[in-house]
Design brief:
- The structure holds two protein chains of two kinds.
- By secondary structure, chain A is of the alpha/beta class.
- Chain A has a single domain, classed as 2-Layer Sandwich (Beta Polymerase, domain 2).
- Chain A is 26% helix and 29% strand.
- Chain A has four helices and seven strands.
- In chain A, the strands form two sheets. Chain A has a five-stranded mixed sheet, with helices on one face.
- In chain A, strand 1 and strand 2 form a beta hairpin.
- Chain B is of the alpha+beta class.
- In chain B, a hairpin with a 2-residue loop joins strand 6 and strand 7.
- In chain B, helix 3 runs antiparallel to helix 5 and helix 11 runs parallel beside helix 13.
- In chain B, 51% of the residues are buried.
- Classes of the chains: A alpha/beta, B alpha+beta.
Amino acid sequence: MNSMNNNVNDLVNDIKSKFKVLNVEHPKENQVSFDFKKEDIHSALSHIRSKGWVQLSMLTCIDWLEDNEFQLVYLVFNWEQGIRIQIRTRIDRDNPTFGTAVNVYPGVKFYERDVHEFFGVVFDGNPDSNKQLFLENWDDMPPLRKDFDSVAYSDKKYPVRKYKADFSSKAGDKK
Amino acid sequence: MKEIKLFVGPQHPGMHGNASIHMYVDGDIINRAYLLPGMLHRGFEKSMERRTWMNNIALIPRICVPEPDTNEMVYAMNIETLAKIQVPERADWIRMLILELARLSAHLMAFGGIGGPTGLYSAMYWAQADRDLILTLFEEITGQRIYHMYIVAGGVRKDLPKGIEKKIIEFLDDLESRLPDYEDLVLNNPTILARIKDNILLPKEVVWELGVTGIGMRSATGQEYDIRKVNPYAKYDKVEFEVPTATYSDALTRMTLKYREMYQTIRIIRQVLDMMPSGDVRAKVDDGSALRWKVPKGQVYSAVEASRGEYGYYTVSTGETKPYRVAVRGASFPQGLLGLEKYLPGHRIDDAPLWFDTMGICSPEIDR
């Protein structure tokens, strides 16, 4: 257990000495999160990958509507040490573009397409960034943004139909 | 020969779930292939943001039908981490029992599932019949056959029913005595071997490139990369089990590992039943009704080892009664999308369902 904690401490010191880290948190045992400036993300990803965090578990995005920012979260895992890192950064919500990380983690390609489709973040350099993946013929704003109201969309897209006869109370009625 | 555009699935006996492969074929060789996901898109992640923490428990098991309990587990683990709840010890053991029974049923389904694309329907019938016996056990424990909604934040919903241990042991004895028949039927069967031996290779470099986890990763790297060993949750550090590995990953190897893992799962369940203490099974997350729980602010990721690989949720809470965001990391995302696009070409059309079966692909967790 102690060696595990030492590993985490070594990692935190190493990252702090090489990059300007805005914030470090320990959400749970064997997990640590770093907040970087957006310029530092790609060099930080390369550095962390070279240190043994070869597994990219996921890239996801969080819409902080009140701050007018998107937060990108790269989750990486080290199978030897069992330590997971959250690599986080915030980008401007009005102009959501970011550089792709396919050169560091090739597996991120489809996660970037996923984030592009659901949040509208454009990843420069991702070859298929603009192709549609999950949402066929989508005609509204990216649906996982916080200001997208799924109920209002469904009411608009599929209005309540008027039926000629009323069947709603017939089922189970006694004659 | 002229290139032909071909769709396999979603209405196809060889397809696993509601997805389709859009392929360009020359004769019966695949030149290019893409997965068309989105056919089961229920907007799980968006729906979760509209529901309370407790309401979501009815929604999340639907993200993977053959093995729904991993969803409940990672969701509960995240809430417990954020709210700093200590789960009662007995609840942890019951969770392991549920997760391992679910793994056994998922492995049976995938192992017998090879019968679909290869035409060996006996394997499928046997496996489904045995899986049904597990579902009956689940029904007795949780009240439900498929979606159990049993693992909740703070522990499990209720204690085990009386006498269930005996029934589980009887079932395990029965299954274990018949597992060699499965080996004879599938792994020693020349018709199946002709299809799966040295076919659908997954080299070590490709594993790292795609980020494949689970059996795919262990069959190629030869390392015990299993979250139950590397980063144990519940009480997995207290039980003894082996993680089968291999260094040459073709479809046959992955099937063999799946088969060997079933024995290990049975071994774990026996230990769990032996070592389970008595006591409380549920701790409170917050005061008052479960529908008005507030979970403290924070961002955390938890993952478990599902039958297909690393399965995790990233949960963001702002201290409200509803989650601010829940992101799902489906175990089949890398091999289902990038893997299929890059490495399926060159195979024959009839290998595509084998790819799906032996890589372990479950389409709802790609759609989310």
